[in-house]
Write a structure and sequence with these properties.
- By secondary structure, the protein is α/β, with parallel strands linked by helices.
- The protein has a domain of 268 residues: Metal-dependent hydrolases (TIM Barrel, Alpha-Beta Barrel), CATH 3.20.20.
- The chain is built from 13 helices and 15 strands.
- The strands form three sheets. Strands 1, 2, 3, 4, 5, 13, 14 and 15 form an eight-stranded mixed beta sheet that branches. The chain has a four-stranded parallel beta sheet with strand order 9-10-11-12.
- Helix 9 runs antiparallel to helix 10 and helix 11 crosses helix 12.
- This is Amidohydrolase-related domain-containing protein.
- One of its GO terms (molecular function) is hydrolase activity, acting on carbon-nitrogen (but not peptide) bonds.
- It comes from Mycena albidolilacea.
């Protein structure tokens, strides 16, 4: 099997300000071939039945705002329908049926990671940096497993912290001028990206110029594509907002967002993906007065929510060896719990991983439980509005109408 250590530099492309702990591990072309071949082989060999006509009875549907009375939800042809005759009946036992969860910021590399996502009801995940492109492609189109959408390679400046991680970003993939923005965006879209990512580096690192960041957003918007920006300190968020990005990923680890910046989130309709899970995992950053990075990040998330800035649930889940790893799938449930601790209501937390995550990533075929929508569904036993941790009490998962079943030995 592939030694996951060889891919640490790619996983670290989005970690908020963390230095690479395994920079000595190089990335070889043979490694790329091995993981790509393994992913593609699994697509062929994993036996998946066609989506069955299914009637999920005796369930309370979360409609994005509240729990509805007990009812039946029908699946046919991989989508939710009003009614399906001769359907297989699944008794929901009075549980709650949610739209499949969406992780708005993650770094999967293998089919095993898709299995982990699926087993926890995470039916869609945004891979917020993915390179080489063959690996991105090898994570696509695995029926019955989590659907991956990706940002391909994030825009970085030469000699910046993120460009120099490990073996570094290829020089011809770094951005030095606003004139390169349109070509950069075009390359990512040709590779299959559904969102463009760029990196506003922390203080002390070379970073994209403001003019270049502005040009990347203009070029992406001209192609009707949204832009996410890694911004993990106060000045980086300022630069991201000046560029009018659609999504700001992470929150500052040095100083909490103030009302001035938050008002710009609102005015520009920029959404936040705080990734509190990764701040908790690393407890990085912090202020000279001793406040830890997680506390600073939580304060920003609390202020954003209080101001009604839309928040999406993202984790930065990755496969860096312990103690740096953040588990795929289970970490999204942790993120929901942390968001509630930061002041979101349980309904707001659920929306952050369903309807809002779908809407702000232009995934209009999912995110709600309604006829005509893709049958990505999570059946749980408890009441997540009463207790957000109930999302962990999983009965069953459907992805594109196919009930997820773990492979033997997992």
């Amino acid at each position: 099997m592939l030694n996951t250590l060889t891919f640490i530099v790619f996983l670290l492309l989005a970690l908020p300000g963390h230095s690479c702990p395994h920079a000595e591990h190089s990335i070889s072309y043979s490694d790329v071939l091995e993981i790509t071949r393994s992913n593609n082989d699994r697509r062929v060999t994993r036996q998946i039945s066609a989506p069955a006509k299914t009637a999920i009875t005796n369930v309370r549907v979360f409609n994005g705002e509240k729990l509805l009375p007990l009812s039946t939800v029908f699946i046919e042809g991989g989508v939710i329908v009003h009614y399906a005759s001769e359907a297989i009946v699944v008794d929901g036992n009075g549980g709650v049926l949610l739209s499949g969860l969406i992780d708005a910021h993650s770094h999967p590399l293998s089919v095993e990671h898709l299995e982990n996502f699926a087993s926890y009801g995470v039916t869609t995940a945004m891979a917020m940096s993915c390179f080489p492109y063959d690996i991105c492609d090898s994570l696509q189109n695995h029926p019955g497993l989590t659907d991956i959408r990706f940002a391909a390679l994030g825009a970085t400046a030469p000699n910046s912290t993120h460009a120099l991680l490990g073996t570094g970003v290829p020089l011809n993939e770094t951005i030095t001028s606003p004139s390169q923005a349109a070509d950069f965006v075009a390359r990512q879209l040709e590779a299959g990206a559904t969102i463009i990512k760029m990196t506003a580096e922390d203080v002390g690192s070379p970073t994209l110029s403001q003019e270049t960041m502005n040009a990347i957003v203009v070029a992406a918007h001209a192609r009707n594509v949204r832009v996410a920006c890694h911004a993990a300190d106060y000045s980086a968020v300022d630069s991201a907002l000046t560029a009018q990005v659609d999504q700001s990923h992470h929150v500052p680890k040095d100083f909490p967002l103030n009302s001035s910046l938050i008002s710009r989130f609102l005015a520009q309709k920029t959404v936040s993906v705080p990734t509190l899970s990764i701040f908790l995992q690393f407890d990085i950053g912090g202020r000279p007065d001793g406040a830890h990075g997680f506390a600073v990040a939580t304060a920003s998330a609390r202020a954003l929510n209080a101001a009604k800035v839309p928040i999406l649930a993202g984790t930065d889940a990755n496969a860096i060896p312990s103690p740096f790893a953040l588990a795929f799938g289970s970490s999204l449930h942790t993120e929901l719990e942390l968001l509630v601790q930061a002041g979101l209501s349980t309904v707001e937390a659920l929306r952050s991983a369903t309807v809002l995550a779908a809407r702000h990533n232009l995934l209009f075929d999912r995110g709600v439980v309604a006829p005509g929508i893709r049958a990505d569904l999570l059946l749980i036993s408890g009441d997540p509005i009463a207790n957000i941790s109930a999302t962990r009490d999983i009965q069953r998962v459907w992805i594109g109408g196919v009930e997820y079943t773990a492979v033997a030995g997992r």
